[in-house]
Amino acid sequence: MANWGTMLVFFGSLYPTTTRFTFIEALKKYGLCLLFHLNSPFPPTVTDCSGFTLTLQFSVLTKTQLAFIQFSLIEEMAEGALSGVAKGIIGIAGKLALSEVALIWGVKDEINKLKETVSTIKAVLMGAEAKQHNSEAIKVWLQRLKDAMFDADDLLDEISTEALQREVMTRDKAKKVRILFSKPNQPAYGIRMGHKVKEMRERLVAIAADRQFHLDERREEIQVRNESRRQTHSFVSAENVIGREEDKKAIIGSLLDPNVKENVSVLPIVGIGGLGKTTVAQLVFNDKELRDHFEPKVWVCVSENFDVKIIVEKILECIKNEKPKDLEMNTLVNNLQKEINGKRYLLVLDDVWNENREKWLSLKDILTGGARGSGILLTTRIKKVAEITKSMQLHLLRGLDDQQSWSLLKKMAFKEGEELKNASFEKIGNEILKKCGGIPLAIRAIGGLLYLRKSVREWQLFKDNDLLNISEEANDILPTLKLSYDHLPSHLKQCFAFCSIFPKDCKIEKVSLIYMWMAQGFIKLYNEKKCPQDVGNEYFMDLLWRSFFQEVEKDELGNI
Q1: How far apart are alpha carbons 234 and 291 in whole angstroms?
Q2: Helices vs strands, H then E, count in the chain
Q3: Domain 238-396 bears CATH identifier 2.40.420.20
Q4: CA 190, 196, 201, 205: dihedral to nearest 10 degrees?
Q5: Which residues belong to CATH 3.40.50.300 in the chain?
Q6: Quick one: 527 exposed, middle or buried, by C-beta within 10 A (0-12, 13-18, 19+)?
Q7: What is the pLDDT of residues 263-319, one digit of tens each?
Q8: Which residues contact 124 (CB under 8 A, 6 or more apart)?
Q9: Which helix or strand (DSSP H or E) is residue 299 part of?
Q10: Is the pTM of this model over 0.70?
Q11: How far is CA 412 from CA 278, 408, 426, 445, in A?
Q12: Cα angle: 351, vertex 230, 448; to 5 degrees
């Protein structure tokens, strides 16, 4: 039979030690309410998987202060989630301000003021989160703000829970069901909560006023732009690439397939950051077999800004070796079509992030005049981008296997032709590689750091100590991998960051994860007709399509 006391303590452990809360609040905030309907008679009954019917006595853990175990881990989730917390506070405050109890308690005005304050702060939050990596002052300011935001969220939860209790008590009073809640004096409670909300608002105002740096307001969430994004090119030294020969052959085979129906085929290469999508595209672009097959061959680095006019200008610049003058779009399109219509061309669109199908179609329409067999090779981290662009099966790029990973690490860590004098190098190296997940970018960066370490002891020390701080030394890794996270909307950032509570190599059940997101209040219902589970499934699939989840298992019906 389920131990409900233990179960509640587990969920309650996610609360900070400074917070006192009732049993029903834990049910509401941490998802135990999924086990039964709070509208049912009290005490409610629950039938567990063993068939036992349990009666929940609400007096058992009323006003009990529970242990702090995991809250700090969730609170310290990756940056970007704070915008989601602010959005949640605004939503809860809006509902409370419209409720009858807020009017009875006299807290409506203070809650509205708190909502306005948080809305004003939220306008600069996204800008602050994008800039914090380059400013210690912004990072410290955000930490202070985060502490206050979580306290505000807890305070509104407490008021919401008390309001829910009173609603249930009022509804069930006629049934004369014994309720084991505490019943504080309503006017006194309202005055106390009003003071708390006012103090919280003043605390947030003080933090906002203490900002000693400029931040642009963003009333709408936009993708984070990384101004230092690299500009890619078509050249690659093939002898320095390991483990991508099969990928190259498969892509070339698809591009040269004589049975393609479209004049211009689109083949996306999909994979997470650092896997080498651009490198594979470079190998294909420079292959001798394609040299005489396609004319012209064009390489365009698209990056975050999918502006059709800019892309057309870049294509023309690549073909004619001169930058187009400031021309109207119609002139640019006419000039481009003169260059490609009737010709079997190959166009590489590298690093594409655009998920807007209309934008893609407006570009594709301009490019459809090529001769039969023309191809567009597109690299992206996002499966949704691949789905809206592809005309043939996408190529999913995977990490290097163990042997390929060791070959690449050895190539980067030792001089060419240098003999390994001790087999311990390979043993330690393979342990280090477990942290890399077959990602070539990470392996190359770590190999570079090991290049001047010539003894087994130095390698062992690196594995035991330096590897933990790899992001500080190999500064190409984190920005590249983090770019995908920066592009997530705030509601997905907090959902993904929550997954950090799972240990490495843990198999996560999709349904359980969605319930956990629901319990944390991460699921926002944008459509009242949808249930939280459906919206949670949309969140999960969005993260999956953006390559944040790997090695997904499906049943015989194709369900994850």
Answers
A1: 13
A2: 24, 7
A3: no
A4: 150
A5: 238-396
A6: exposed
A7: 999 999 999 888 999 999 999 999 999 988 999 999 999 988 899 999 999 999 999
A8: 211, 215, 216, 217, 218
A9: strand 297-303
A10: no
A11: 19, 6, 13, 8
A12: 110
